[in-house]
Amino acid sequence: MQVINTVADSDVAVKVTSLSKRFPNGTLALDNVSLEVPRGQVLALIGLSGSGKSTLLRTLNGLHAPTGGKVVVQGTDVSTANGKSLRKLRHHIGFVFQQFGLVGRATCMENVLVGSLGSLRGPRLGVRSYPVALRRKALEQLERVGLSEQAFQRADTLSGGQMQRVAIARSLMQEPSVLLADEPVASLDPESANQVLDLILRIAREDGMTVICTLHQVELALGWSDRIVGLRAGQVVLDQMNAQLSQEQVMEVYRATGTPMQFETESALQSA
Amino acid sequence: MSSSATKERLSPPITATQVQLFVFAVACLVAFVWSWIFLGMSFSGITSSFGDVGRLVKRMVPPDFSNLSNIVDATIETVWMAIMGTAGAIVLSFPLALGAARNTSPHPTVRYICRTVISLTRAVPDLVLGAVFVSALSIGPLPGVLALAIHSIGMVGKLFADAIEQAAEAPREATISVGATRRQTTRASILPQAMPSMIATALFRLEINIRASTVLGLVGAGGIGVLIQTSLRSLDYESALGAVAVIFVVVTAVELLSVRIRSAILGDAAALAQSARHGWFSQKIIARDTRVNKKSFETRALSPPWTWDRMFSTATISGFLLALAVAVLTIDIDWARTLPLMPQIITVFGDLFPPDFTTVRSEMVTGIVESVVIAVIATGLGLLIAVPLSLLAARNIMTKRILSTVTRLVMLAFRGIPELIIAVIFVSAMGLGPVPGTLALTVVTASFSAKLFAEALEEVDAAPREAVLAVGAGKIQEFFASVVPQFMPAFTGHFLYILDVNLRSSTVLGIVGGGGIGFLLLNSMRVLEFQTTGAIVMAIFGIVLAIELIGNWVRQLLR
Fold this sequence. Notes:
heterodimer; A: 2 domains; 10 strands; B: 2 domains; globular
């Protein structure tokens, strides 16, 4: 069932057309990638480190500028947006980082409040510099991720799983229609990883968010997403709805990546 | 009730730490304003003062190098003094550090004594020590060398002890468990770990001592400083600039060289491998190291191969020893005459006791207050200039490369002239008094702290910055939300350090007529009232100790 190609334009949250990204040092991170993500879909992006997953996510909210092709998120062309329009777009795209991106010395509350900066004018320093209404909203988001008790604890006193939940609360402050998550559970132990992914999924379903999430663990990707896209050396090598996939098919993405050393090892193993 | 509880939780709870930090901040502000009024400072006054300095500098160009052979001789003497002083400090600091470090100290009492000796030596400014030694040994470079050696123990000993304490515990346990003695354990497990950091410390101190030895001449303790003062006093401005230019070249060259060597010694293999992808030179090094390692394996060599690291460390150490040997042999010290005088040092120190606080009491109080006021204003004004400068210089904040490079060069240029030399120039432009001293110290503070701040800013974690930009924040919002909270602890730490350094400097500004207690100090020695000298040294010691206690209190709040 190829749902992907039959959706109307207004129902498309993210549309990527022939996207390429070459870094100044010459690395081709994305090679002619095309992708259409309908509203409300939960998409898992898989592939080896260096396959271009993170770069793809970062071009979706303009942290990286593409060198070719077009990126449209929520009807806005990211590739041509700049300054104010880019900030406005980013304000509606949540981004969850592998390393959380929290300011360790600041309280959880302040870290969550940072999520509202896009709707405010001027710089803020300290919880008290934010309007009370936003503080109340921040507390609600912390409640949603189960950390309202820790609101005024320093972020660097939390466990990894808790930190990632604070980072998710920060994204929720943005009331995002699209949530991008870059290896959100790669630095976490299995139990915290499950908690964090469950949290993202529950919130996505409740709020009708579109989620694009890069993941290392194939089992997690299979059990959790609607659709899986595999990247290898900057190219899309797998794009299927989850229900049609077997673990073996997914594992293919990680095989035969073309680096000579792995070929040697593999042929050696086969001949043995 | 529940709504009030919710409301409460919308503001962070006020902690005792925050209250104390607030009190400290207010106290700093009050001290600054009070000092500003005390000295009668005004921005128009500062502007016209810098006008005076500008006019003087104009009269100094073009520099006159007709006296070049004298200048070069004096500069060489300055460098030899710094090398000998640093060597003395290393020799004296090493046993003290072993005694002071928790993991090598034989007994808590020894540890306490060593720590006290180390901090005592730091509390007396090198110029004061120099002046005391001059009165025992008469003028010449030897008192300067001794002053540098003793005063440097404070920093070298402390950093050596820190390096020893930071050595990992596991190798020590492993060495003890094979049955090694205490000395064998220290030699085999602790020193190899501490050595790179200790070499870097020694180099850094050498760099500081080169600056310090250029001004020791002002109290008759040898070096080039006195040439500048004499030229300025005889209104021979062009010659003065000639000497300043030579000092500038030497100080800057040593700083650049020392920074390179230190980063090469402290840089670990991982960092080298990282840079190997880019640097042609580091690729050559790695290739060569691989080759010599392989060869020594194949030939079953029984001594370690000459890898780049080993060659580099050996070259650095033997270079230093060679320079030291040349210094000892060629410096203008009549060892046969001065060595028998050494016991007199103890006599002179004995003359300082009992300290006489009464004879010049009111001048002493005025002088001390003036010194503190000078340090407070110089620190405050210097920071006001340093913060914007550091934002321009930090490469991760100022993304226009050319602007940050220019700012860095300007900062480097100002650091190239030792602060007392700047003070001498300001005093001869504006006349005697605390204001020229304050402004000279301000200029130095600004360029030094801008460097420290820029380094701290460049260490700010980039991950939160990216995360804040990703929520759609503007650049200024991002700066306040992610950079400022990360920078604050470093800022406060450096602020305390700079205040501490400035208090020490302001006590000696008076030696060149820049205000504060220094004039009285030097004068009491000239008229041989050593007990008054003793009282002043005790007073300086008290101020320095007080600021150290305040610093420890605030640092503990920031933890």
